[in-house]
Design goal:
The structure holds three protein chains of three kinds. Chain A is built from twelve helices and twelve strands. Chain A is α/β, with parallel strands linked by helices. Chain C is mostly helical. The radius of gyration of chain C is 24 Å and the shape is elongated.
Chain lengths: 350, 321, 346
């Protein structure tokens, strides 16, 4: 799969090209991340959207080379500036993790070490990468805690995870991830486990901090509300592949891929009162059942005869917009997948 | 914190009372003093001799408190003696039990301390290693060897080692003891090594399960994501979180340690508390036997209290409750 | 009581009961989808160990079926009225006077060594009393299975009874059970065992009872903890709201959810008991005819000249192979049934 020609490495913080990560299912290995390519520019938020199990978390873990066994990154490239991440030796990879590329996890409850004070865990992150004193690192940690909005940082630094609320724990995670001003931040569902009111605060905090540091953020989420609030661009994943990518406004406003349309139509806010919610028929296929062609084919309302056995081709309906769909290669077809908006109008709007 | 310790010690004392009642049940009611006397004196002993022996060893009192003998009975006497560490004399050879315990403690401690510490460290390090390579052939080989080691009786370890080292290689004396500090290690080396080997399999298998469970937790991934190396992740994060099950297992191991040293001491001729217990069994020396059971139970209860208190150091979640 | 238990018709009846029970168990396992899947998975993972166990159980059962011949055989009046088991009939009846090497034609000691009554007929040699080592080793199978199995059969129901009632009813019951548990757990197992056997007297049944008393505590603690968790589950609350009786809840919702722990504990306990019995045997208070007793003599036999090694090797191998098979089956069972390791595997 050729990557977009107009993506020059210089303007992007990180560029992922044809990333493949496999897991064994029975006797064969299935690519749960299949030829994924995207880039994130400094100060930009790219939202990676999809249902659970579509490979979006694995994509982030693959970028940090933290795929759990027996999974394995098989190929592709992750370029961070001049560095090829997938070719680094182990010590260099260790220096990169948490320093140039950091990650925030979904479960703040279990992602912090329960028997270490939260401050000590941030101090450890600093000391792992900078040759400084414990005292200086502690001072930095207090500042970081203040910056992420933890009240009374001087005492909270010695608190243990179980003494903090979920929102505070996630703030600690953010402080830890941003402690060394990483070039790239991978945020894996950072607000999913939190209360709705806290979610907004955390998102706003990430936005503010990003403005100061210019960090590129890959935001992994299944929540289109979060996407709406945070993302500059959106990449939609299904079955280990990116099916559609482009500006947030374009992808959410005028979705092109049948899966994106179904996803948007299924959002509760979109349906009119009293109308039943749209649903995508069928179930998400298990990785072991993935076929050679487009993985959405079995559920697709616009399926063509060759969809099941030929990989979906890439098309660019407009600049900086990518869609992988057989039905979009030829003339746009006038089929309404059930959304309340006329599809043709949506495509003409681009 | 202090309130917790006080409560814990109080419960320990209640347990001691329970142990004393159980000992009374076993050694004074189920086994009749007449039988004990007959075993000590021989089957042909006259009733007069038996009565005299019972008087000498304090078995001639009424069993339970009653009118006229509220304090002068075996139950109260048993409690009084045990709680004041006045253990009396052996049923078999009339030696003072407390003196023999004092003599036997040193060799026992010299044997069990290195056995316990080295065995524990070796077991933990090996299982950390195996857990790090989980789901690979190193892991599978390690687990298989551990199960293999667990399936051999400690008797076979001892007999095998004595035969190999004593009879074929002739590196160490296979039996005996000399309190002289310059040579004592020559007598202790073999039993210590055998003790470590015999418990290694079970330890590795247990700790591996603990570590593998921890390795898969989210905070380990966080530690890796912030750039911690493998060694640091295993030793600082995984080991730190595994301390609770390790501590529990360590305390559970203490009585088994005694079992091990019982056999080791008897086989290798080390005159410690274990040998003393085995002699007591051979000689039907109930007075010594119940004293040994009581002392070991006391040590175990004490160890449990210390563990529960050390939990609070190892795990902040328990500390603050 | 003792006499009834040792009568050969009693052990024949037990064998029949065991066979009937295993048929009933296999029918149950076959009908229950969950257990059938687990059994199939076990068969897939540990075919060799299961085969080895089947051989052991076969030998143990064959050694438990005994009968009296009724009429005299030759001039041996005594043995004619002694019940003899199937294993004894197949491998026994060739007594010598003292030690002989495997397949030897003459006794081990003596100048010159006297010829054996059955030269070349003892593939594993004979022991100090001239008994065939192969026969002794095979007869040890039954003792080991008895020690491991009977003990677990006493200890597990006991632990379930106390653990479940303590965990389910809490308060007073829990206080009492917890006190008994912590008292028993405070006395190191081996010493409590020694004290119990010395108090109860010697014999296989007494050894099993003593082993059961010392080993039920650990499972009782697990059962108690697990019951406390189950008691708080939503569907148990729902059942209570719908008016299901307490006993009904325990029977329908608590016990079935403890069954995987019972199976795991049974297997792990089994091998532990056999190992501990060997120690008791060496202390002179073990079960009659156990491998432990054979091994215990090795200290003396290995210091002889020439060395007598075959008794300890035969008994040690018999015990080692049995425990290895049980432990590896136990490991697999735990992997298959334990939800924690199950999650790890997926």
């Amino acid at each position: 799969m050729a990557a977009a020609k107009n993506d020059s490495a210089g303007s992007e913080s990180v560029r992922v090209r044809d990333l493949v990560t496999t897991f064994p299912y029975g006797s064969r290995r299935v690519a749960v991340v299949d030829q994924v390519s995207f880039g994130v520019a400094p100060g930009e938020v790219l939202a990676l959207v999809g249902e659970s199990g579509c490979g979006k978390s694995m994509t982030a873990l693959s970028m940090l080379r933290l795929v759990p066994k027996p999974g394995r990154v098989e190929g592709g490239s992750v370029r961070l500036g001049e560095t090829e991440v997938l070719e680094l030796d182990v010590p260099a990879m260790r220096r990169l993790r948490g320093h140039q590329m950091a990650m925030i996890f979904q479960e703040p409850m279990s992602s912090l070490n329960p028997v270490q004070a939260v401050g000590a865990q941030v101090v450890e992150a600093i000391l792992l990468h900078e040759d400084t004193t414990v005292r200086a690192a502690r001072k930095r940690t207090v500042e970081l805690f203040a910056a992420v909005g933890i009240p009374d940082p001087r005492t909270r630094i010695d608190a243990y995870p179980h003494q903090l609320s979920g929102g505070l724990k996630q703030r600690v995670m953010i402080a830890m991830a941003l402690a060394l001003r990483p070039t790239v931040l991978l945020a894996d569902e950072p607000t999913t486990a939190l209360d709705v009111t806290i979610q907004a605060q955390i998102l706003r905090l990430m936005r503010e901090l990003q403005r100061d540091t210019g960090t590129a953020i890959l935001l992994i989420t299944h929540d289109l509300g979060v996407v709406n609030e945070m993302a500059d661009r959106v990449a939609v994943m299904y079955g280990g592949k990116i099916v559609e990518m482009g500006n947030r406004r374009a992808v959410l406003g005028e979705p092109s891929h049948p899966y994106t349309r179904g996803l948007l139509a299924a959002m509760p806010g979109r349906a009119r009162r009293g109308e039943p919610l749209h649903e995508i028929t069928g179930v998400v296929p298990q990785p072991a059942e993935w076929q050679r062609g487009c993985r959405f084919a079995s559920r697709c309302p616009e399926r063509l005869p060759h969809c099941t056995d030929q990989p979906a081709p890439r098309s660019e309906p407009s600049p900086a917009r990518e869609v992988f769909c057989h039905a979009r290669v030829g003339a746009p077809r006038d089929i309404d997948p059930g959304s309340s908006r006329p599809v043709v109008a949506a495509e003409e709007g681009e | 914190m202090l309130a917790y310790v006080v409560r814990r010690v109080a419960y320990g004392l209640v347990t001691v009372v329970g142990v004393l009642f159980l000992l009374f049940l076993l050694f004074f009611t189920i086994t009749a003093p007449d039988d004990v006397a007959r075993k000590a004196l021989g089957e042909k002993a006259q009733q007069e001799q038996i009565d005299q022996w019972k008087r000498l060893h304090g078995y001639d009192r009424p069993l339970l408190p009653g009118p006229g003998h509220v304090r002068d009975n075996m139950l109260v006497e048993h409690f009084r003696r045990m709680l004041t560490f006045d253990f009396g004399r052996s049923d078999a050879d009339d030696t003072v039990i407390l003196d023999r315990i004092k003599d036997g403690a040193v060799p026992s401690i010299l044997l069990t301390t290195p056995l316990f510490l080295v065995g524990l460290c070796l077991g933990i390090l090996l299982s950390l290693f195996v857990a790090f390579f989980r789901e690979t052939y190193i892991d599978r080989t390690g687990v298989f060897l551990a199960v293999l080691g667990m399936s051999l009786s400690i008797l076979l370890y001892i007999i095998g080692a004595q035969f190999l080292v004593g009879k074929l290689l002739r590196w160490f004396p296979i039996s005996g003891y000399d309190p002289d500090p310059a040579v004592v290690w020559r007598f202790l080396a073999l039993p210590v090594v055998v003790g470590i080997l015999s418990s290694l399999g079970g330890n590795v298998r247990f700790y591996r399960t603990v570590f593998v469970e921890e390795v898969n937790r989210d905070y380990v991934r966080t530690a890796r994501a912030k750039g911690a190396g493998d060694g640091r992740v295993m030793l600082r994060h995984v080991l730190g979180n595994a301390m609770i099950p390790i501590l529990t297992n360590v305390v559970m191991a203490i009585p088994f340690l005694f079992t091990g040293s019982l056999l080791l001491e008897a086989f290798f001729g080390i005159p410690g508390l274990g040998s003393m217990t085995v002699d007591a069994i051979d000689n039907n020396d109930f007075a010594t036997l119940r004293t040994m059971v009581y002392i070991d139970a006391l040590l175990f209860i004490l160890g449990q209290i210390l563990t529960d208190v050390s939990y609070t150091v190892a795990d902040p979640r328990i500390r603050l409750e | 009581m003792q006499a009834i238990l040792e009568h050969h018709w009693f052990s024949n009846a037990v064998v029949a009961a065991l066979l009937l029970g295993s048929v009933a168990l296999s029918v149950f396992v076959h009908r229950n989808e969950l257990w059938r899947g687990a059994a199939r998975e076990l068969g897939r993972r540990r075919p060799v160990a299961l085969g080895v166990l089947a051989v052991y159980v076969g030998i143990g059962l064959a050694d438990s079926v005994a009968w009296v011949d009724g009429r005299m055989q030759g001039e041996d009046v005594v043995s004619a009225h002694q019940p003899r088991s199937a294993v004894e009939r197949a491998f026994g009846g060739r007594p010598e006077k003292t030690y002989s090497r495997p397949f030897a034609g003459a006794e081990l000691y003596g100048t010159p060594p006297r010829p054996l009554a059955f030269p070349g007929r003892h593939p594993l040699g004979t022991d100090i009393l001239g008994r065939d080592t192969l026969l002794l080793t095979l007869r040890g199978v039954r003792v080991a299975l008895l020690v491991g199995g009977l003990t677990s059969l006493i200890a597990i129901p006991l632990a379930l009874l106390f653990g479940v009632s303590a965990g389910y009813f809490g308060r007073r019951v829990d206080d009492v059970v917890f006190f008994v548990m912590s008292t028993l757990a405070s006395i190191p197992g081996i010493l409590l065992l020694i004290a119990l056997v010395m108090a109860l007297g010697q014999g296989t049944l007494q050894v099993c009872l003593a082993l059961a008393v010392t080993s039920w505590v650990s499972f009782c603690r697990i059962a108690r903890g697990e019951t406390m968790k189950l008691r708080e589950l939503d569907y148990v609350h729902a059942a209570r709201l719908m008016g299901v009786s307490e006993v009904g809840i325990v029977w329908r919702h608590v016990l079935p959810n403890l069954m995987h722990l019972v199976v795991i504990t049974f297997v792990l306990m089994f091998s532990g008991q056999v190992l501990v019995e060997a120690v008791l045997a060496w202390l002179g208070i073990g079960a009659a005819g156990s491998w432990g007793q054979m091994i215990a003599q090795a200290k003396d036999e290995l210091s002889r000249e020439p060395v007598v090694y075959w008794n300890v090797l035969a008994a040690g191998a018999g015990m080692f192979v049995l425990l290895l098979a049980i432990n590896s089956v136990g490991d697999a069972i735990r992997d298959i049934l334990d939800p924690r390791t199950r999650r790890e595997r997926e």
